[in-house]
Amino acid sequence: DAFIRKNGALSEHTSASLTDQIASGLAYLHSNKVIHRDLKPGNLLLRRWQDDHGNAQLTVKISDFGVSANVKGEEVAKRSCVGTPWYLAPEVARGAPSSY
């Protein structure tokens, strides 16, 4: 939110790149049986840097694992409703079991 307020809207290419990075990060977490449970813009950190050709790049990092759950054998963690209400998946808000 703050990044966009300061720098303006992201290009389609940049948005796609950041979305791909977030999806890759979530895939890694899920492959290790970790559910973040509070993914929202405020928990995404952006780093601006320049590549070897001087082109501006953005890297996104997923942060704030305070309510995350390692669900190896903890099915209750997949059924509990935790997170910021405005960003909850509808099935989580309804109390339905979540999945990766």
UniProtKB/TrEMBL annotation:
- In what residue span(s) does the Protein kinase domain sit? 1-100
GO MF annotations for this entry?
Answer: ATP binding; protein kinase activity
Domain of life of the organism encoding this protein: Eukaryota
- Example of a GO cellular component annotation carried by this entry: nucleus
InterPro entries attached to this UniProt entry: Kinase-like_dom_sf (IPR011009), Prot_kinase_dom (IPR000719), Ser/Thr_kinase_AS (IPR008271)
Q: Which PANTHER family match?
A: SERINE/THREONINE-PROTEIN KINASE PLK
Q: What is this protein called?
A: Protein kinase domain-containing protein
**Organism of derivation:** Lotharella oceanica
